[in-house]
Amino acid sequence: MPVDILLLHYTGMQSGAAAIARLRDPEARVSSHYVVEEDGAVFRLVPEERRAWHAGISHWRGRSGLNDRSIGIEIVNPGHEWGYRPFPALQMAAVCDLCLGILGRHPIAAWDVVGHSDVAPDRKQDPGEFFDWQGLAANGVGLWPAAPGSAPGGTEADAAALLAAIGYRPDLPLPLLLSAFQRRWRPARVDGLADAETLGLLAAVAALHPPFGH
């Protein structure tokens, strides 16, 4: 089927070489289309027209099994298990250039540029709270809300409805979904709570996502 999702990951291994070796190992049964090293080097492992095995059990905006319809980019970073650290500027520039090229070749909407933690919030945290989603959006990759306000009168039911409207899987526990949302959109505070600032951000982000059929 046509590619309509761009999915970003971190490698979560101790080195880029170890990650590439695993992604090339048939026994591992895991793969990605691209790997971006910390120095900005880009490796293509799977042609874009072929399916790669990077998403796992995944759901976004009413679609499941996202390996069938997505391009996956693994961004070298040790991840939360091995000493998570900020992504270098050269690496982020290479990611941005790679994403812009992919977006030019496939009909991927801005709201379908997502992280692994967005599509599998019960299993994944990547690319994590250090990833510069705002910088990517400023350069034409994905979305970022402009100056959202707070929503002091909001409720948990409001939060659940907004998360579902954005595209998160609606049947998972609310604190887990809120943590995934905050990891991407409010990285300074990932606590899974529907406070006024998070609710304001939810409303601002939901306004950037058009309705879809659940």
Automatic annotation (TrEMBL):
It comes from the Bacteria. Keywords: Cell wall biogenesis/degradation, Hydrolase. Residues 1-128 form the N-acetylmuramoyl-L-alanine amidase domain. InterPro entries: Amidase/PGRP_sf (IPR036505), Amidase_domain (IPR002502), NAMLAA_amidase_2 (IPR051206), PGBD-like_sf (IPR036365), PGBDSf (IPR036366). It catalyses: Hydrolyzes the link between N-acetylmuramoyl residues and L-amino acid residues in certain cell-wall glycopeptides. Transmembrane segments: none annotated. Belongs to the N-acetylmuramoyl-L-alanine amidase 2 family. This is N-acetylmuramoyl-L-alanine amidase. The lineage of its organism: Bacteria, Pseudomonadati, Pseudomonadota, Alphaproteobacteria, Acetobacterales.
